[in-house]
Amino acid sequence: MTDALKINPFQHSLKGSLKLPGSKSITNRALITAALSKGLVRLEGALFSRDTLIMIEALKALGFEVATDPLQARIQIKGLSGAIPQKKAALNVGNAGTAARFITAFLALQDGGEYFLDGDPQMRERPMKGLLDALVELGAAEFIFTEKAGHFPFKMITKGYRISEAAVDASSSSQILSALLLSLPASSQDTVLRCPNVREAYIKVTEHIKVGFGATYLAEDTPGEYIVKSQGYEGPESGCYAIEPDLSAASYFLALTLLHGGNLSIENLGEAPIQGDAEFANILKLHGLEVQPHKAYWSLKRPLELTAMQAPLELDFTLFSDTFLTYAAIAPLISSNVTLKGIAHTRHQETDRVAAMAKELKKLGQSVTETEDSLQIISDLKTLKEKALAARASGSLLKIETYEDHRFAMSFGILGTYDLLGDGLPWLAIEDADCCSKTFPDFFNTLAQLKHASHS
Q1: Where do the domains of the chain lie, and which CATH numbers do they carry?
Q2: What is the rounded CA–CA span in Å between residue 203 and residue 321?
Q3: Are 43 and 31 in contact (CB under 8 A)?
Q4: What count of Cα atoms within 13 Å lies in the side-chain half-sphere of residue 250?
Q5: What is the C-alpha to C-alpha distance for residues 84 and 43, in angstroms, rounded to an integer?
Q6: E-strand spans in 280-334?
């Protein structure tokens, strides 16, 4: 492991602009949908990160022609109208939840396929059972588990979707339902999925992408019941699909502007993004951040001094849970007493995010009460400063463990930009900062560039 990355505090208010990388969630959905489409499809603004490269390599291993241009953020793929060239393959999905679930449902289209799938140790613990059970119920696959039932690694014997209805448990991850919704239009029959407990924000993203590739809007006659038409994908009329920027990544720069004030422009973000994480802006507006969406960019500013909210606050992150870490990391600076709820399912993501966030905040001297679905954080800025000074006195810095989870690195990276001790010197360091390669490989370089622009 490399040395912990020291975070240099900002000493001036922000000025400048940045361009966000493409959304991981949208890039990987679009890759699957493009592979199912008819003919060449070009993805513009695509993300090149560990998770999307895992998806690209999996598609190549399955025999698809994929051409990439990272400098232009462009991917071209030749769709085969639902066919999968290779009937046998061994695939490793790393710790990419989207690749793990979307590829598994995609492979089930193949009649007579044999595939071996595995992932990182963390991926072997993440929820897959809801998807695998649904595929068995749909007559689409059988699974032979090498270690733990319902988890990677496993051998998958695929049969094509044969049964027209199934119950789907997507309570642990909406990706389980999205995986089926992406692949089923390429099957030979209409299918009814009964899934009463799912976070709709990501399902809406999935459906928006499918419509962009020529599918009709999902029919939902009864709440929790999804009727998927067998229709195939023609692909975008222009042959090109634009990937929306990553709104989870935007949350870090909204938080950065709140902490430092000034003006920041996010250049490639439009007025009406399809990702639910756009709602995080409304959370920070409670603390005085001004966010103005325009046709091709967002402008951010914080005109008043940063002051911690004194009244107890309760915030529900159910529909945009990836951003709860962004808020939690800076909570000691902006809220005296805040409860973040709607986060239980994040215990099953890259790590147990609720427990890990509680641990790191307690390490910083904050009072944290953890329930299955919430964190209450009571700020103690005095103790945070004392701990930072004590670390300095011992020749060290406060260090944040990231658990191989990119969102810990980026969230606490924003906290570290705050000039806690008033001398412009680092007081916080991030262990394994390279884990950002999962979704935003250039994150810390982007921070450094904004710091330079603000100080010049």
Answers
A1: 5-21+245-455 (3.65.10.10), 24-228 (3.65.10.10)
A2: 14
A3: yes
A4: 31
A5: 20
A6: 290-293, 298-302, 313-316
Per-residue pLDDT of the chain (456 residues), as tens digits, is 468 999 999 999 999 999 999 999 999 999 999 999 999 999 999 999 999 999 999 999 999 999 999 999 999 999 999 999 999 999 999 999 999 999 999 999 999 999 999 999 999 999 999 999 999 999 999 999 999 999 999 999 999 999 999 999 999 899 999 999 999 999 999 999 999 888 888 899 999 999 999 998 776 668 889 999 999 999 999 999 999 999 999 999 999 999 999 999 999 898 989 998 999 999 999 999 999 999 999 999 998 889 889 999 999 999 899 999 999 999 999 999 999 999 998 998 888 999 999 999 999 999 999 999 999 999 999 999 999 999 999 999 999 999 999 999 999 999 999 999 999 999 999 999 999 988 899 999 999 999 998 876
Check if the beta carbon of residue 137 is closer than 8 Å to that of residue 166: yes
Distance between CA atoms of residues 117 and 58, nearest Å: 10
- Is 323 in contact with 316 (CB distance < 8 Å)? no
Could you give the CA distance from residue 1 to residue 7 in angstroms, rounded to a whole number?
17
Q: Catalytic amino acids?
A: 322
* Nearest partner of 413 among 254, 248, 245, 256, judged by Cα: 256
How far is 216 from 233, CA to CA, in rounded Å?
Answer: 10
Token pair in block for residue 36 = 């199912």
Burial pattern 378-399, b for ≥16 Cβ within 10 A else e, equals bbbeeebeebbeebbeeeebbb
Residues in the chain: 456
Pairing of strands 74-80, 367-370: unpaired
d(CA 252, CA 258): 10
- Say if strands 165-167 and 154-158 run parallel, antiparallel, or are unpaired: unpaired
User: Across the strands, what pairs with 115?
Assistant: 89, 156
Specify the residue for token string 């911690």: 308
DSSP code of 188? Answer: S
Cβ atoms < 10 Å from Cβ of 172 = 19
